From TrEMBL:
<dbReference type="GO" id="GO:0043235">
    <property type="term" value="C:receptor complex"/>
</dbReference>
<protein>
    <submittedName>
        <fullName>Uncharacterized protein</fullName>
    </submittedName>
</protein>
<dbReference type="InterPro" id="IPR002172">
    <property type="entry name" value="LDrepeatLR_classA_rpt"/>
</dbReference>
<keyword id="KW-1015">Disulfide bond</keyword>
<dbReference type="GO" id="GO:0005886">
    <property type="term" value="C:plasma membrane"/>
</dbReference>
<dbReference type="InterPro" id="IPR036055">
    <property type="entry name" value="LDL_receptor-like_sf"/>
</dbReference>
<dbReference type="InterPro" id="IPR051221">
    <property type="entry name" value="LDLR-related"/>
</dbReference>
């Protein structure tokens, strides 16, 4: 019975959502009508019934490749989701995804679009008595720009760079939100209520500056338990084991 539950847990619940498969940022599971965001490929979480989202072989051509970690896995170049970096599990052939953060940073050359993107890529350099990287002085950087726009990572505190995106089901100035008093559907929250330090959505998805964890290399998103100061890893969601005191990590 548990094997059957595991299988159907990855099924598409709402057939009328299949038209989203036509979007360039969506991936259609093999032998299935289910579609998932390409940002969920190779994150060690099975989303497709046949697990093909975790054996995808073109990960370094994905739209979020600049947020992924490139290394060799079984002698094949792979670009891993950032949440797998320093998670105490070696994915790369030489274990470089678990090496010390400072060993992964570079000394001089990075892509322009990675400047002030929330992820540190440069080693600190001492300038005028201060250590500077590609993520310092970012208060003067426009957070909603052509590089941060619609990449599913909130660079702006209120997520202004992630509204009115092709994959969104909400209106121009709204974010998707699961309200704690109705976990049966995904609703929409006005952008003026996002990033206001008041939690409106389950998991505090509207207050991502509260739940983001910086491992020194990448910002990782965590799920904030309802009416609690605790937060859990996104890898723990819907694993049929309650990590939050009120079980809200398992009710949507």
């Amino acid at each position: 019975m548990e094997n059957i539950n595991n299988l159907f847990r990855t099924c598409l619940i709402e057939p009328n959502e299949t038209h989203y498969c036509n979007h360039s940022n969506m991936y259609q599971c093999k032998n299935s009508t289910k579609c998932i965001s390409k940002y969920r490929l190779l994150d060690r979480i099975q989303d497709c019934p046949l697990n093909d989202d975790e054996t995808y072989n073109a990960s370094c051509s994905l739209p979020d490749v600049h947020r992924r970690f490139s290394c060799s896995i079984r002698s094949y170049r792979t670009c891993l989701a950032s949440l797998l970096i320093e998670d105490r599990t070696k994915d790369c052939d030489n274990g470089e995804d678990e090496r010390r953060i400072d060993e992964l940073l570079v000394e001089n050359h990075i892509y322009f679009q990675t400047i002030c993107d929330g992820n540190r890529d440069l080693l600190p350099v001492l300038i005028d008595g201060r250590y500077e990287t590609d993520e310092t002085e970012c208060q003067f950087w426009l957070c909603n720009n052509m590089y941060s726009r619609c990449d599913r990572f909130w660079l702006c505190k209120n997520g202004a760079d992630e509204v009115n995106c092709p994959f969104s089901n909400c209106s121009e100035f709204e974010h998707s939100c699961v309200f704690p008093n109705d976990t049966s559907k995904v609703s929409c929250l006005p952008i003026n209520q996002a990033g206001d330090s008041v939690i409106h959505c389950l998991g505090a998805t509207d207050e991502r500056h509260i739940t983001q964890y910086n491992n020194g290399y990448r910002f990782l998103q965590r799920f904030k338990c309802w009416n609690d100061s605790e937060s859990v890893s996104s890898l723990s969601l819907c694993n049929r084991k309650s990590e939050c005191r009120f079980g809200d990590d398992e009710i949507f």
